[in-house]
Amino acid sequence: VRLVESGGGLVQPGGSLRLSCVASGFALENWYMSWRRQAPEKAPEWVASIDGRGGAGYASFVKGRFTIARDNAKNMLTLQMNNLQPDDTALYYCAQMSGVGTEVARGQGTQVIVSS
Q: What is the pLDDT of residues 13-59, one digit of tens each?
């Protein structure tokens, strides 16, 4: 199992980024997948999830700004992030989740920095 994220970078407040997570060794469509993030000196926090049927859930701080999606043909998970704010600065990573909500596997992450 391998998860590789990309798409992070430096963006000004109000800007957008699209993160991608390519999976190998398993089929994303058969798993509950999540995006999580970890800011410096803070605990990891859940951002968004998508289940096997495509149902999505978001953390309250997303407030309609982020969209999680899955491309089964490419075995890829994405996170479209709009109206980014400095508080969104963090290492973002994708995770394969178990049925009880624990991480089965995760990627190394991609850094997002929101700053003017």
A: 999 999 999 999 999 999 999 999 999 999 999 999 999 888 999 99
**Residue 71, token pair as written in the block:** 């491309």
**What is the C-alpha R_g of the chain?**
13
Cα angle, residue 96 at apex, residues 91 and 102 outer, rounded to 5°: 90
CB burial of residue 112 (10 Å; 0-12, 13-18, 19+): buried
CA–CA distance from 14 to each of 81, 83, 114, 116 (Å)? 10, 4, 9, 10
Among residues 84, 94, 99, the alpha carbon closest in space to that of 49 is found at 94
Name the nearest CA neighbour of 15 among 65, 69, 70: 65
Q: Count of residues for the chain?
A: 116
The continuous run of DSSP H or E covering 10 comes out as strand 9-11
Helix or strand (DSSP H, E) at 67: strand 66-71
Name the phi and psi angles at 86, rounded to 5. -55, -35
